[in-house]
Amino acid sequence: MTPASGDTLTLPKEPEGAGRIKSLIRVSRYLGLKKIRLAAVIILFLIGTVSFILLSVMLGIAVNSLTGIKTVDTIYPVVATMAGLSVLSFICYYIGYYLLADVIQTALFRLRQNLFEHMQTLSLRFYDRQPIGELMSRVTNDIDVVTAFFQVPLGTLLMGTFMLITTMVAMLWLNSWLALVAMVAVVLLIGIVWLLARVAGPAFGMLQERLADLNGLTEETLAGEKTIIAYRQQKKMAARQSGVSKEAYEVGVKAQVVSLVINPLTVLVTNLDVGIVALIGSIMIVKGALTVGVLTTFLSLTLLFVLPMLTIFANYNYILSASVSAGRIFSILDEKPDIVDRPGAVELKPVKGHVVFKDVNFSYVSGRQILKNNSFEALPGQKIGLCGPTGAGKSTIINILTRYYDIDSGIIEIDGQNIYDVKQESLRKQIGVVLQEPFLFSDTVMNNLKYGRDGASEDECTAVAKDANCHEFITRLPKGYDTILSDGGSNLSQGQRQLLTIARAMIADPRILILDEATSNVDTRTEKNIQAALRKLQEGRTSFVIAHRLSTIKDAHKILVINQGEIVERGTHDEMMAAKGFYYDLYMSQFKGRVSEILSE
Ligand SMILES: Nc1ncnc2c1ncn2[C@@H]1O[C@H](COP(=O)(O)OP(=O)(O)OP(=O)(O)O)[C@@H](O)[C@H]1O
């Protein structure tokens, strides 16, 4: 059951401003996973850049050496050195980029793995908070944005930064006054970028949010395609889609335009800067304070100085969007799992299946209590029926027995052991679950059965499949047990999927079983098959059967009637029918409904 509206919390918001820079630095730390290679890249880029800068210095030397000389011989060694520097710089950049590719791919691999693995540790409470589409967006779209940042501009940015630093050092060394003139451009550009960041930054954040909305809607539309067609809602869904798309378009344009304006602006600033350096330099030459060669070097350095800034700013949108996406990714990575093993938690030894609830209270969200003072006992091997109106809290009882959620107060014991004192994994190993919506993996039939228990052999699985009335239909599949179940088993009928999940639970061989309305939505013959398989599955195990149709729990050792989170009645079917209470009314209303159904057939 989905949470009632108003109960949903939202995913932690991505950081803003300084937080974004922190996120960018944090995501860049993943590059340090290959420290030696990264160090080699930095050294190679540095050598490449210094060689490149020396080319400009050599240009000045060449100009100076030509002044007043009639023979070109003196220029040859200079040209040869320049050629050597060019080749050296090329080789350094080439190897540097080659190594960087590996550094980047390792970083992305780890980031994807960390995110996926971390999400597996989070509790259902976390997944309740947001539509799956929103999470999908963070796992796919945001990772793609960071990938684009690492793959496209990162190398250029590294190169640019080195270029900026080495050029600055070279300029200061050649002539500190002229160097300061050239640096005016930096101040101007930083000012422009600061202004643009104030507008574009939030726009990029909003763009990612709109894209996440779009993903959510697409996911919902695809999952509900059958219902959409049945209720002829295609046009409405298309209109909703285009509404969200338009919002993404509008913030997208804002983010993009602002960051694109930066390009022509930086070109303008560059030209102005070169002009100013040429003017001041010429005045200095006239006054004898500078040689023509030094000015030539300076002009070429000024260009080299502004060029990396151009590249940095040209890639500004990558940097902005990557910082936003990195923030969104880290907001998931920083989410602490709230269902954790207590310090000193022990393995739950194989149990007999004695389950006790004592005064258990529970709420999904604070302030809205769902289960109130639930107490009951299930002896080993007993079948316990759970019934009651929709939203009464039947599934919730199961959710806390399996520790999908932690309770507010009370005690839950299995074979006398508090479930909070044992390791979650060892607890869940002993509880088999057959859900209302059978979930199968996109894998072969055999592997789906093997998911029940690590190490289950093929012979064992085939024998169980026979017991669970699956073998016959499996052998009729195109590749038998090797048939791949596409998209969670959509190539099987609902009943077949249910039979397979029953077989999987049999292979798991747990002492405690949870069956959640496992027999709904199937024809009578399949239902008989399922019932027979379930009876086999329940043999010798404590089972909790959540039933809407009371006929499925008539034979239960005990039936708990839940209403608004409280156990309002308990006993066997016969006892409660005789008592003519809540259960009796429930049963009679279903019975009458069934009779009128049969009469109208
Ligand atoms: N993840 C959740 N977050 C918040 N509230 C929830 C969540 N799941 C269920 N609820 C609320 O808890 C109450 C009990 O839900 P539960 O699913 O246990 O009912 P149920 O008896 O199993 O209903 P049904 O027979 O319709 O499946 C409902 O009011 C429901 O809105």
From TrEMBL:
SUPFAM superfamilies: ABC transporter transmembrane region, P-loop containing nucleoside triphosphate hydrolases
Transmembrane domains' residue ranges: 38-63, 75-100, 145-171, 177-197, 292-313
Main subcellular location: membrane
Tagged with keyword Transmembrane: yes
Residues covered by the ABC transporter domain: 355-589
Subcellular location: Membrane
Membrane-topology descriptor: Multi-pass membrane protein
Xref: InterPro entries: AAA+_ATPase, ABC1_TM_dom, ABC1_TM_sf, ABC_transporter-like_ATP-bd, ABC_transporter-like_CS, P-loop_NTPase, Type_1_exporter
Pfam families tied to this protein: ABC_membrane (PF00664), ABC_tran (PF00005)
Name this polypeptide is given: ABC transporter ATP-binding protein/permease
UniProt organism field: Methanoplanus endosymbiosus
